[in-house]
Specification:
The complex is a heterodimer of chains A (about 575) and B (about 575). Chain A is α/β, with parallel strands linked by helices. Chain A is about 40% helix and about 15% strand. The chains are: A alpha/beta (about 575), B alpha+beta (about 575). Chain A: InterPro entries: Myotubularin, Myotubularin-like_Pase_dom, PH-GRAM_MTMR6-9, PH-like_dom_sf, Prot-tyrosine_phosphatase-like.
Chain lengths: ~575, ~575
């Protein structure tokens, strides 16, 4: 956003960092993208910038005096740059949702003040000082999202069909596995004591648990951390018993290790490892290579940098797109998910999936396999449940992974766009099966935004244990409480949705994959014509429904008239 | 038929080009005079027109048989395995002969018979009338007139008979200018913008060498400039890269010297020549044909092929042209070397950006007839209709269609037609099923008596119009008449539905577009049903004791209030 030649003055002195403040509020004469598109000149108004201390809703307002406001959550700020040319200061705010905002501020001192306030406010140390703890919803809560997807309810959905499984509370105190939820689904044949033993044999205590039950043939996907075989090939009888309990007599299962073989071998030196054929004779192990952590983070940084450069020629754009490797990661993740789904559906085999910790690539694969296999996970409720189950409760460390985004320069090891890659993969499948999903692209974009910066507590913390300690349920609002209200849902509903009970196999050929423009080019191009076309499409669909209803009504009336005639004619 | 030794081979396998599991269909291969036909076990038929075949290749014998790979000009690639080598050899030789005809008269169009009588056929040819089109643009008028200089193709063989030139340009000036232009292609009107009174003109390069000049040519340019009352200068766009144009000077050709022409603004726009474009497409197809292609190989192949770079260059040139007219009301003269490839691309795309009419189904046909067919784009040579010089083949027209597709992607509501329309036109520039694209210029087409012996494509497309309509088209959005596309690199995407149109496994499994198209059709039917039903209910209601009601809502009310004793 630039302010052109207009002076920008501060309406209120930036509040100091003692008072938690969560929003940057911007008033402007002209609101336009950094690259000068969509510019809309507004007149007769003062422009200003506020760092807001009071708690207010996040929205863009257009009050009567023709000002435009842009509200930006401090936690959405990924990095800020300052520049000075003479007395004119410029602050460039780079957001976690990849947007870049430029503020021109006359007066060096003021500019420095604002910059340091923004910096301080956007890097709060304590989670409990963050906005979700102070946010008060301005909407009526119809359904408390914190109770929408309890593990018990999810298990209930299955329980009629899965007699060989049970709900275990062995982790009630988070003592067996700190990153698991209190309730997990395990084979009935394995008791809690055995689970405790298995936990000691798996990375982070993440013993194999049920991730997905394929109703069609009773086969399952399990997930876990890597086995701690170490260099001397340690084994654990209970572990073997646990996963064998999921096999039918004479049937083989598949272990999908998301790491390449050499990485898995190297892991043994650090106490990790993989399942040895000798100890798991009924299992076939397949290694894939989904990258992790900083490799993904670097990929994102390169991709976003390239998408923000509008001046590069075609060759440079294509070579940078290639060099970012983003779509290669997408292809690899989707391929692995397809493999898992194929083993389950086509081969009729159960699968165990893990990488190292079992909190990143493992979850990408288990959740995408469900998108492919399970129609319910393509509905809005089902997808929310999937995120609850396979990401939040499964212990994907959102707080760490989403602490910074594409503009960060801290080289922390744990920041990584694992969840964004998952959403991108879902988008790729959605593009190939545009009628099979109840939600639309906006739903995925919304989830991306809230994973990185949100007024809701859903994505805070790294696992259920941390969320419990933070008392998020009591102190913050759940994202689902907001999303699942009819007024919001209508924005996220796919007008083309027609329930499709089939397995949907996506194409993973490079020609079939695309850059997710809705995320990566969102701030760099005008989508006016595309939005208008989408509206027109919705109109056609709505009109179709109207006409059909009208025809049905008329037919009914006609039928009634005819029966009346019959009655009159033959008294 | 003398080329066909074997007409039928059984137990032939058709391999899936991209499947990793080596899936194949077994069936029977037939060879007819015009088509190759494969019928698989499920009775599904695959027809391949001989004219569509770009290359046939016999690969090394395998245990399962002799592989035969056929690449088509419409980007279909089929991979057969013929059990016996002898059969494979026969088919291979037949296809080599059948796909490269030596004479125009052997092309499919001369035997194609859609069961129409002569009158119908002639009406088909009269469907697109360029004289009408110039009238629609507003010429002739006080500044522009029809010239009869080329009525007998005496000045320029590759131009049409009817040409529009500035009223003040006398015949000697025209003749003089034509002698100073490559192949006699002197500056003439391509498009007239009525409200701006500005013109797009086209020609070939001047024979200027290092210092030659021609007063008549200078006069003609001045006349074009003066025919635009609003503006004092005109643009001359040389669509070639500067270096190529300079190299041409050594051969006595070249470009306009700004010093010799008054008030021109000269501009190079850097579109590469037909040879660069041919090998670019070749590279692109090689990369995309790879089985198990990685993302990195795909993008590095896309980059090194340069294909999208060339598409962007054509688009940028068209935008420059449209801006000069729309924003500056300046007339523009466009040329390249001969003025029938890049010039056709830029003039037609520029007009398309400026004039919403060309974005309709009929308007697009007119545009192709005008800037491509009548002005002598050498379709037969560029598409390799006959067994000729492979160096003359080039995907210039394909690039034009791709640019239009990119525009439809950026402006989904601005075009009356859809992607299928572009693909169908592309299919037929190579099919030789209709006469429109046969030959290299109008004179040649007249000599071939195409209007008597063949059919025009356009009426057939219009009959099938339903298939080609864009359901999101809004003539409302046309009010913002000039399209201003964004040509930042990331807006250009690989056109999968063109280059992989037959590789269904690479496509989305559900098409939003088809659904909306069907729904639009259904809506029309429903509207009709409602009318019918309403009239019936009105009649049934119009009997003693009942009430005549014709609208839905009142019917609903009367229903509810009807006494139950009835």
């Amino acid at each position: 956003m630039t302010w052109g030649d207009q002076a920008l003055f501060i309406q209120r002195t930036p509040c100091c960092a003692e008072v938690p403040a969560w929003w940057v509020q911007l008033h402007a004469f002209s609101v336009q993208g950094l690259f000068g598109k969509n510019s809309e000149q507004l007149t007769n108004s003062s422009s200003g910038l506020e760092l807001e201390g009071s708690v207010r809703g996040r929205r863009v307002e257009s009050p009567t005096d023709n000002t435009e406001e842009l509200w930006l959550l401090h936690s959405n700020i990924d990095a800020i740059d300052k520049r000075f040319v003479g007395p004119l200061g410029t602050i460039i705010i780079k957001c976690k949702d990849f947007r870049i905002i430029q503020l021109d501020i006359p007066g060096m001192e003021e500019c420095l003040n604002i910059a340091s306030s923004i910096e301080a406010l956007s890097t709060l140390d304590s989670i409990t000082l963050m906005y979700p703890f102070f946010y008060r919803p301005m909407f009526e809560v119809i359904e408390d999202g914190w109770h929408s997807f309890l593990p018990e309810q999810e298990f209930e959905l299955y329980s009629s069909t899965i007699s060989e499984w049970r709900l275990s509370y062995v982790n009630k105190e988070f003592s067996v596995c700190p990153s698991y939820p209190p309730a997990v689904i395990v084979p009935k044949a394995i008791d809690d004591d055995a689970l405790r033993k298995v936990a000691t044999f798996r990375h982070g205590g993440r013993f194999p648990v049920l991730s997905y039950y394929h109703k069609k043939n009773g086969m399952v996907i399990m997930r876990s951390g890597q086995p701690l075989t170490g260099t001397n090939g340690r084994r654990c009888k209970e572990d073997e018993k646990l996963i064998n309990a999921t096999l039918r007599a004479g049937k083989r299962g598949y272990i999908i290790d998301t790491r390449p073989l050499n990485i898995a071998q190297q892991a043994r030196a650090k106490g990790g490892g993989f399942e040895q054929e000798a100890h798991y004779p009924q299992w076939r192990r397949i290694h894939k290579s989904i990258d992790r952590y900083h490799i993904l983070q670097e990929s994102l940084i390169k991709l976003v940098e390239s998408c923000n450069d509008q001046t590069q020629n075609m060759d440079r754009w294509l070579s940078k797109l290639e060099a970012s490797n983003w779509l290669t990661h997408i292809k690899e993740i989707l391929t692995t998910a397809c493999l898992a789904a194929q083993c389950l559906d086509r081969e009729g085999a159960s699968i165990l999936i893990h990488g190292t910790e079992g909190t990143d690539s493992t979850l990408q694969v288990t959740s995408l396999a469900q998108i492919i296999l399970e129609p319910r996970s393509r509905t809005i409720r089902g997808f929310e449940a999937l995120i609850e189950r396979e990401w939040l409760q499964a212990g994907h460390p959102f707080q760490q992974r989403c602490a910074q985004s594409a503009y960060c320069n801290s080289k922390q090891k744990w920041e990584s766009p694992v969840f964004l890659l998952f959403l991108d993969c879902v988008w790729q499948i959605l593009r190939q099966f545009p009628c099979s999903f109840e939600f639309n692209e906006n739903f995925l974009i919304m989830l991306f935004e809230h994973a990185y910066a949100s007024q809701f507590g859903t994505f805070l913390g790294n696992n259920e244990s941390e969320r419990c300690k933070l008392k998020l349920q009591q102190k913050t609002m759940s994202l689902w409480s907001w999303v699942n209200r009819p007024s919001e849902l209508s924005k996220f509903t796919n007008p083309l949705f027609e329930a499709n009970n089939l397995v949907i196999w996506p194409s993973v050929a490079p020609q079939s994959l695309q850059l997710w423009e809705g995320i990566f080019l969102r701030w760099n191009r005008s989508s006016k014509y595309l939005d208008e076309a989408y509206e027109e499409m919705v109109n056609i669909i709505e009109y179709n429904k109207e006409l059909q209803a009208k025809v049905n009504l008329l037919r009914r009336q006609l039928a009634e008239l005819e029966t009346e005639d019959g009655v009159q004619e033959s008294p | 038929m003398e080329h066909i030794r074997t007409t039928k081979v059984e137990q032939v396998k058709l391999l899936d080009r991209f499947s990793t599991s080596n899936k194949s269909l077994t069936g029977t291969l037939y060879l007819t005079a015009t088509h190759l036909l494969f019928i698989d076990a499920h009775q599904k038929e695959t027809w391949i027109l001989h004219h569509h075949i770009a290359s046939v290749e016999k690969l090394a014998l395998t245990t399962s048989g002799c592989p035969l790979v056929i690449q088509c000009k419409n980007f279909r690639t089929v991979h057969f395995i013929v059990p016996r080598e002898r059969d494979c050899h026969d088919i291979y030789n037949s296809l080599l002969q059948l796909s490269k005809q030596a004479k125009y008269e052997d092309l499919y169009a001369f035997s194609y018979n859609p069961k129409q009588n002569d009158a119908e056929r002639l009406r088909g040819w009269e469907l697109i009338d360029l004289a009408e089109e110039y009238k629609r643009m507003g010429v002739p008028n006080s500044n522009w007139q029809l010239s009869d200089a080329n009525r007998e193709y005496k000045i320029c063989e590759t131009y049409p008979r009817e040409l529009y030139v500035p009223r003040i340009a006398s015949k000697p000036i025209i003749v003089g200018s034509s002698k100073f232009r490559s192949k006699g292609r002197f500056p003439v009107l391509s498009y007239y913008h009525q409200s701006k009174e500005a013109a797009i003109c086209r020609c070939s390069q001047p024979l200027s060498g290092f210092s030659a000049r021609c007063l008549e040519d200078e006069h003609l340019l001045q006349a074009i400039s003066k025919a635009n009352p609003a503006n004092r200068y005109m643009y001359v766009m040389d669509t070639r890269p500067r270096l190529n144009a300079m190299a041409n000077r050594a051969a006595g050709k070249g470009y306009e010297n700004e010093d010799n022409y008054s008030n021109i603004r000269f501009q190079f726009v850097g579109i590469e020549n037909i040879h660069v474009m041919r090998s670019s497409l070749q590279k692109l197809l090689e990369v995309n044909g790879t089985k198990g292609l990685s993302v990195n190989d795909f993008y590095s192949g896309l980059e090194s092929s340069g294909w999208l770079r060339h598409i962007k260059a054509v688009m940028d040139a068209a935008i420059f042209l449209a801006k000069a007219i729309a924003a500056e009301s300046a007339s523009v003269l466009v040329h390249c070397s001969d003025g029938w490839d890049r010039t056709s691309q830029v003039c037609s795309l520029g007009s398309l950006l400026l004039d919403p009419y060309y974005r309709t189904i009929r308007g697009f046909m007119v545009l192709i007839e005008k800037d491509w067919i009548s002005f002598g784009h050498k379709f037969s040579e560029r598409c390799g209709h006959l067994d000729g010089d492979p160096k003359e083949v080039s995907p210039v027209f394909t690039q034009f269609l791709e640019c239009v597709w990119h525009l439809t992607e950026q402006f989904p509501q601005a075009f009356e037609f859809n992607e299928a329309f572009l693909l169908q036109i592309h299919e037929h520039i190579h099919s030789c099923q209709f006469g429109n694209f046969i030959g290299n210029c109008q004179k040649e087409r007249e000599e071939l008596k195409l209007k008597e012996k063949t059919y025009s494509l356009w009426p057939f497309l219009l009959d099938d119009q339903k298939k080609y309509l864009n359901p999101l088209y809004s003539s409302q959005s046309q009010k913002s008449a000039v399209l201003e596309p964004n040509t930042v690199s990331f807006n250009f995407k690989f056109w999968r539905n063109m280059y992989h149109q037959f590789d269904r496994t690479l496509h989305p499994r559900q098409s939003v577009f088809n659904i909306i198209m069907n729904m639009n059709e259904q809506n029309k039917q429903l509207e009709k049903d409602i009318k019918d039903l309403e009239s019936i209910t009105a009649v049934s209601g119009d009997r003693p004791g009942g009430q005549a009601e014709s609208t839905l809502t009142t019917l609903g009310q009367s229903d509810a209030t009807r006494p139950t004793s009835c």
